[in-house]
Each structure stands twice: as structure tokens, then as C-alpha cells.
Write a structure and sequence with these properties.
Rossmann fold; 6-stranded mixed β-sheet; 11 strands; 5-stranded antiparallel β-sheet; globular; Uridine Diphospho-n-acetylenolpyruvylglucosamine Reductase, domain 3; alpha/beta; 366 residues
Length: 366
């Protein structure tokens, strides 16, 4: 069982699990997640963890979605694991929020994971993203345009709440615990997953939407990646995954540098030079390399959930470097303002929609 041995080594090397932890395993019923739960159930005594199964019914495929839930519930009973399930109308969420089905499904899942972590005292939630998923993600982001943070692809571990920018549920705040999301299969190929399932005689569910060519990721999976492997690099998935690994480590280092200038969620006492609320002093900003200037601006945007494309970000950077008092309009009703107080350094700060209207009034006043 090559996959089991590789997973065992990776869990130890990367210290993704600690003895005594309660780990929720996200299981859709597909091959990857079924393999993950079978493997972690086998390794649980060795690592000293208590696994449980989490399943969100997306209500996208009618009776097939309900059959997926029944399959996963039966698997949980077979393995003797706790089963936690919820349903979400993902199509309605996508329509109401004006986002794609994929984005709506992701938001619904992470919200469910956070609630499950609170009510079932989970320390970690594990999802079954594989090396193939990583390769597809990196290629997808390259097609759309990405910097180092985008090329880092799918993170191997992160705080769960950060994925949906949501506050911790009261139960988690009381415990003072921020559950972690982990992806233990990120170094494992889909072929290894399927071989593992064959070796243990485990069946799984097939989701026809994974073959739907309307979704760009599916076209990358079924057409673009195979063509690139055939004509250019037979080891492309491995190469893309290694690119993500390097980019993730370098991105983490750059983010640490940014945090010395703009600490996340810092107040003025903790961050005299810069904070997400008060902005950044322009002499400090100008003294940074271009790469850090861009990261500083993205960090200032984060509390607002404001994502700028390259052109918008460069416009904001030019505005900051020019240093003239005034207001720059940004997408979604946000803006940036340069203040030049007497006896203090000029400062750039971002404004909410409400603050933008006040700043415009000040600019228009005689």
C-alpha cells in the first residue's frame, strides 16, 4: 500500500497531526475523500488521533446528492466513526451572492467545517486535495494571472476561519481555539489514491459534475493537462506541485516581512508605523522594495475583503508614491486617502464605503 506508507511519512515529516487531537475528515463520497478517511482510520491508533467524518450535502444533484450522503453515513458506520452531516442549498447561495457554484460550495463547506469544529470540539479538519488538485490549481491560476501567492496553490495547512474571513463561533472563542485545516494528501497522486482503494476493495461515489466541460477546472483536468503532459512534459503535475511548494515557502517568508511593517489586525500601539486601520506612513512605504510595496497594499486591503487586480494595485501604488493629498477611488465603493498632517509624516490609508463619502466631502469643501 504505497499511498498509506507515503501518507504516514508525510504526516510525520510535516507534523500535521498531534496525539490526542480530534480530527474531522471531510468526506464527499468521491475517491479522494474515501481514500483519506480509510487511511486515517487505519493510522489513527499510531498517531493517537480521534477521527470523525464530516459530510455536507450540497443539494445540487437531487437524489444523487442524497445517495452520496447515505453512502458516507454507511461508511462511517462501517469504520465505527462519528458522522456529522449538514445540508446547504448551494445553488441558492450562489444566486443570492452573485458568485459561482464552485465559490458558493467552498464557502458553504468551510462554514460547515467551522460549525462542526465548534460543536464537536475538533482540533483539525482534513480535506482530500491531492497532488493532481494542486497541479490543476496552479495551472488555473497561471491562466488567470498570478503572483507568488497565487502560485503557492493550495495551502497544506491554514487556520480554518481565515478561509472565509469569519469570526470564530462563540464555542471556539470560549475555548480559545482556532481549528486548523490540513490537506494530508497534497503530495499523493490521484493514481496512488485509486490504487489504494483497489487494494482494500473500497468502492466510492462518482460525481458527474466533475466531467462537466462548462467548468474551467474540468477542462483543465480532462483536456489541457493531458495535452501538456503528452506534448511537453510527462512529469508536469509533479513540476507544478513542486513549483507550488517552493512558492508557498517563499510566500510565507515574504508575508513575515510584511508583518513586521503591517501586523495583521494590529492597532496603533502595536504597530506605530502601520496598521490595517491607520494605514502606513509614506516614507516607510517608499523605502521598501517594489515587491514589499505591493504586499503591504494587499495587506491593507485584507480587512476589507478587497481584492485588487494587477492594474488596480499598480494604480494604488502610483498614488501612494506620488504622495499628494487626495482620494483615489477603488473597486466596490472603497477608496484610498493620503493625509498630510502638520508635523507628522504623510500617510496612506484605505477607507470603507461609508468613509469614502466623508472623504469626498472633505475634498470638495472650500
Amino acid at each position: 500500500m504505497a499511498m498509506l506508507a507515503a501518507l504516514q511519512r508525510d504526516l510525520r515529516r510535516r507534523r500535521l497531526l498531534r496525539p490526542g487531537e480530534r480530527v474531522g475528515i471531510a468526506v464527499s463520497g468521491g475517491a479522494d475523500s474515501v481514500a483519506l478517511v480509510r487511511a486515517l482510520a487505519t493510522l489513527a491508533p499510531e498517531f493517537g488521533i480521534v477521527p470523525a467524518i464530516l459530510h455536507l450535502n450540497h443539494k445540487l444533484r437531487g437524489a444523487d446528492s442524497d445517495a452520496d450522503q447515505s453512502f458516507v453515513a454507511s461508511l462511517a458506520a462501517q469504520l465505527g466513526l462519528e458522522f456529522v452531516a449538514e445540508s446547504a442549498d448551494v445553488a441558492a447561495l450562489a444566486s443570492a451572492e452573485g458568485i459561482s457554484l464552485e465559490a458558493a460550495g467552498r464557502r458553504a463547506r468551510y462554514g460547515f467545517f467551522l460549525r462542526a469544529a465548534a460543536t464537536h470540539r475538533l482540533d483539525r479538519v482534513a480535506t482530500a486535495h491531492t497532488r493532481d488538485d494542486q497541479a490543476e490549481t496552479v495551472l488555473l491560476r497561471l491562466l488567470r494571472g498570478a503572483g507568488p501567492s497565487g502560485l503557492a496553490g493550495i495551502h497544506r495547512a491554514c487556520d480554518l476561519a481565515s478561509l472565509i474571513r469569519a469570526p470564530l463561533p462563540p464555542l471556539l472563542r470560549e475555548r480559545g481555539v482556532a481549528p486548523r485545516l490540513i490537506r494530508p494528501l497534497l503530495s499523493i497522486s490521484r493514481a496512488e489514491v485509486e490504487e489504494f482503494l483497489r487494494s482494500v476493495g473500497q468502492d466510492f461515489r462518482q460525481d458527474a459534475s466533475n466531467l462537466d466541460p462548462r467548468f474551467l477546472r474540468n477542462r483543465i483536468r480532462s483536456h489541457l493537462l493531458p495535452a501538456l503532459e503528452r506534448d511537453y512534459n510527462p512529469q508536469l503535475r509533479q513540476a507544478l506541485s513542486e513549483t507550488a511548494e517552493v512558492a508557498a515557502d517563499e510566500n510565507a517568508w515574504i508575508e513575515e516581512l510584511v508583518s513586521t511593517i503591517v501586523p495583521p489586525g494590529a492597532d496603533s500601539a502595536a504597530a506605530p508605523l502601520a496598521s490595517s486601520e491607520k494605514g502606513i506612513e509614506l516614507p516607510i512605504f517608499r523605502a521598501q522594495p517594489v515587491a514589499l510595496q505591493r504586499r503591504i497594499l494587499r495587506r491593507l486591503c485584507q480587512p476589507y475583503g478587497l481584492a485588487l487586480d494587477f492594474v488596480q494595485l499598480e494604480s494604488l501604488r502610483d498614488f501612494a508614491l506620488a504622495g499628494k493629498a487626495g482620494v483615489l477611488q477603488l473597486p466596490a465603493g472603497f477608496s484610498a486617502e493620503i493625509l498630510r498632517p502638520r508635523l507628522l509624516p504623510a500617510r496612506l490609508r484605505l477607507l470603507s464605503r461609508h468613509e469614502t463619502k466623508s472623504a469626498e466631502g472633505r475634498q470638495g469643501a472650500p
